[in-house]
Amino acid sequence: MKKLEESLDFLQKHEEKLWFWGVDRAEDMGFSAEFLKEAGLKLDQRNEFPRKSTSISLAPEKEVPAFVLGPVRRGLAELVEAPRTALAGD
Questions:
Q1: Residue 11: which of 37, 30, 32, 39 has the closest Cα?
Q2: Assuming Cys at both sites, which of 15, 48, 75, 84 could form a disulfide with 54, CB separation 3.0 to 4.6 Å?
Q3: Is the Cβ–Cβ distance between 54 and 75 less than 8 Å?
């Protein structure tokens, strides 16, 4: 929870400097990549959003059965693997 709070504080402090996917800001591309690297993040250079997504709604402080998380984990693994596969083919 502490890490989430720190991340939120960081994003709020640097809100004006951040830019989001889909916005053409070529003039400051180097700055943005460097800024994200300092924060321990990577610049997402995909041309499209992923076509499928997995979502789940949970009540706070409630245990979640493993069978509920299975599809979410598979979906996330596929999203991570897809860009790697595309880069390997280049």
A1: 39
A2: 75
A3: yes
Closest CA to 70 of 58, 84, 52, 56: 56
Give the three-class secondary structure for 81.
Answer: helix
**Dist. CA 1–CA 79, nearest whole Å:** 25
Token reading at 44? 């997402």
Query: What is the CA angle 43-48-53, rounded to 5?
Result: 95
| Greatest C-alpha distance within the chain | 47
pTM of the model: 0.29
pLDDT per position as a tens digit, 45-57: 666 766 666 667 7
What is the DSSP secondary-structure string of 12-56?
A: HHTTTT---TT---GGGHHHHHHHHHHTT------SS--S-----
Task: Find the angle CA(14)-CA(19)-CA(22) to the nearest 5 degrees.
Answer: 165
